[in-house]
Write a structure and sequence with these properties.
Length: 353
């Protein structure tokens, strides 16, 4: 089965027809290749990207939806906790402009909810890793005292703020989409909130350590910790992720084990093997090894690569039929990942180019 990402779909349709810059692939060769294969599909994550991208251009969106139908590209539900039904697609195929506009708004809301949920989850993961490592390095507290610190950090009023923060992420992201600046607006809020949380963690650990040691001036120790961390670069801007990375990178074994455990968490959520690989080897590595900031688009790229795990339930034992799943993408980051985990996917992409 061949699965197209958004840019591959646009090249199939014709980027010039969309007013886009030149294609990274020979579009004639791509069209010939795709037209000669019946086993091809469009992931629902990609469909959602297309619908939200052209939500303000109803005519183009209608043309793209009709093109998908004409080319025999059924939707493949690749988002574990959100599905698009066949009836839904049939309905929008015959809907007028008003219906298309209404549907695009609905899809945008669903996309915002998914991106908010993951953004908040990544925020919690990064915060927890930071807290666990800072406590691990603290020699002034016993293991039992460290457990109590973690319990304190997870107490009810922190959870109450967490619920408020998730709503703030969602509102901010929705406002960002209205101004077409969703990536930067969400990224800036994410860094600001993560920065404040890391400062609180440092101050709390200092406070507990000072109290255990019977310090005469706990307030002075708290102020000193705050000043020390801000001087190191916890500024809510460009310095935040490098400081977090510098902290975690001191222990490569801890970081490697942490990334593996975090990626494995998603197994319980029915995320596929390759989706978890992408989380571990691309997204977490970018954050914790190279100090890159949150890239919202990575979330839907992660969904897309999971199509590699698709298994054809109607497969036969005919050796002449290729039952392998491929993701057609010409994005450099996606291609690098595909090359690493599925060399045969690179061979296919190179043959098209």
């Amino acid at each position: 089965m061949l699965f197209l990402d958004a840019n591959a779909f646009y090249s199939y349709y014709g980027r010039s027809r969309l007013g886009m810059s030149s294609s990274p692939v020979n579009e004639t060769a791509l069209c010939h290749f795709l037209d000669s294969h019946n086993e091809k599909s469009l992931p629902t994550s990609v469909f959602m990207e297309i619908v939200t991208h052209y939500r303000d251009d109803t005519d183009t969106l209608m043309n793209l939806i009709r093109f998908r139908e004409q080319k025999g590209l059924p939707l493949y539900n690749n988002i574990p906790d959100y599905c698009i039904s066949t009836d839904e697609i049939t309905a929008i195929s015959i809907a007028g402009k008003a219906g298309i506009q209404s549907y695009a708004k609905k899809i945008l809301e669903e996309k915002i909810k998914i991106e908010t949920r993951f953004t908040f989850l990544f925020y919690e993961i990064t915060r927890d890793l930071y807290a666990h490592y800072k406590l691990k390095q603290n020699s002034k507290l016993t293991n039992e005292q460290k457990k109590k610190v973690l319990v304190f950090l997870a107490r009810k009023d922190f959870k109450d703020y967490a619920e408020k923060l998730e709503n703030i992420f969602e509102t901010t992201l929705r406002n960002g989409y209205e101004t077409h600046k969703e990536q930067n607006i969400l990224k800036n809020l994410y860094i600001k909130e993560l920065n404040e949380e890391c400062l609180i963690i440092d101050i709390m650990i200092t406070g507990f350590s000072s109290a255990v040691q019977g310090s005469d001036d706990i307030i002075a120790n708290l102020q000193m910790t705050y000043q020390e961390m801000t001087n190191k670069g916890l500024d809510g801007m460009n310095g935040t992720m490098p400081v977090i990375v510098d902290t975690l990178a001191k222990d490569k074994i801890f970081l490697k084990q942490a990334k593996a455990k975090v990626a494995d968490m998603f197994k319980r959520g029915k995320y596929s093997f390759t989706q978890r690989e992408y989380l571990r080897d691309v997204m977490f590595t970018a954050w914790f090894d190279r100090a890159q900031k949150l890239q919202k688009n990575d979330i839907f790229d992660m969904f897309c690569v999971g199509c590699l795990d698709y298994v054809d339930s109607k497969a036969t034992d005919n050796m002449l039929i290729d039952r392998t799943s491929y993701v057609i993408s010409f994005d450099d980051r996606m291609k690098s990942f595909l090359e690493a985990v599925r060399p045969h996917n690179k061979v296919l992409l190179d043959s098209i180019k």
